[in-house]
């Protein structure tokens, strides 16, 4: 028999009926004789509510106490699922992060898992006990609860799969797989049978929130066979318990993909902001003077464009930050103005970064030109561009998000027939 990790996201455990449905998926695998560890998220909306309460209590708050509050959502779901499983006759026990323990580093609010001691959970597999583990949380070196950053239950699941040597990690969510773009904004998006780790990593880091970036990294490094699949289907429908070929999208090595497209998918990330520093002194060390303090403050700087101005002694520096960090970034730059000597700071929020992703871009030319032409034909202005070997990212006005995603999806032939 095999060993499985099953992860259920917020919508999948959104109310007691849904938890009951989730329990049927778990029971199906346990009845088949597999060792089963389940990782759960907080009920849909719960984490946002908890984050909101922290902000209401005080806009600036201690990250340890934030973690104490927001980790509670997963604790509730783990207990409720264990109760539901027990009522169905399944031997189940809930585990909070510290009880396993799942050890993390000390970056409260955005901690990384360092080690999972799953010996006790594995021992209980021999007693046919199902482990129901609270996702998103672990134990930091200061002996306090730490959370893994939004969407972190995916990472808990993949890390748990690596720790117990699972044959498969199934990420159950509210869509039935990974699509060529977010099916919520492009109904013509197609579900992929497989996607490579590298492309999934790009999709996730460029905004496709179906998997947390870190979970894909871990799956790639530890070679965890990871499927994205739907929790809403009838748990006992034919094929649902198929061990080798479960329904959904397999995240796998590039060489496991037979038909490779040039462009695999389109991702987008809303709520970007752009900052331009006009006429910054053009001398060595200027970029370090700008981006050093931002990095120290934990501001994630993304697309960076530097223009040489006509005179040659000054340069314009433009870059993006998450809109939520704009005020913080502006304050830092204004404070450090004397060291950088720029003429003016301009900023704009409400922007979106749309990205075209595909491993095939390595060996094909003209992919970027196609995107620029298609966006121009729709009257969508491009504010900044960055590229890498397997992606092109384009910054646009947020009002054009849906139009841009659909346009790019169509122009690369990704629309379903
Ligand atoms: P969960 O609560 O299960 O973790 P999330 O809301 O975090 O679920 O992620 C699932 C959502 O990701 C889907 O509802 C979908 O709208 C969104 N999504 C964005 N891009 C994609 C994509 N390329 N394929 C599938 N889903 C996507
Ligand atoms: N509940 C957490 C969040 O909403 C973690 C997760 O769902 O993955 O971010
Ligand atoms: Mg998620």
TrEMBL record:
Pathway(s) where this gene product acts: Amino-acid biosynthesis; L-methionine biosynthesis via de novo pathway; L-homoserine from L-aspartate: step 1/3; Amino-acid biosynthesis; L-threonine biosynthesis; L-threonine from L-aspartate: step 1/5; Amino-acid biosynthesis; L-lysine biosynthesis via DAP pathway; (S)-tetrahydrodipicolinate from L-aspartate: step 1/4
Residue sites binding ATP per the record: 7-10, 173-174, 179, 184, 209-210
ACT domain mapped to chain residues: 275-359
Alphabetic keyword roster: Amino-acid biosynthesis, ATP-binding, Kinase, Lysine biosynthesis, Nucleotide-binding, Transferase
One Pfam entry name: ACT
An example Gene Ontology CC term for this record: cytosol
Record-level GO BP terms: homoserine biosynthetic process; lysine biosynthetic process via diaminopimelate
InterPro entries found in the cross-reference section: AceGlu_kinase-like_sf (IPR036393), ACT-like_dom_sf (IPR045865), ACT_Aspartokinase (IPR054352), ACT_dom (IPR002912), AKii-LysC-BS (IPR041740), Asp/Glu/Uridylate_kinase (IPR001048), Asp_kin_monofn (IPR005260), Asp_kinase (IPR001341)
Catalytic activity: L-aspartate + ATP = 4-phospho-L-aspartate + ADP
Residues engaged in binding substrate: 47, 74
Transmembrane segments: none
This enzyme's EC code(s): 2.7.2.4
Superkingdom classification of source: Bacteria
Family affiliation: Belongs to the aspartokinase family.
NCBIfam families: asp_kin_monofn, asp_kinases, PRK06635.1-2, PRK06635.1-4
Name of the molecule in the record: Aspartokinase
Organism: Jiella flava
Taxonomic placement: Bacteria, Pseudomonadati, Pseudomonadota, Alphaproteobacteria, Hyphomicrobiales
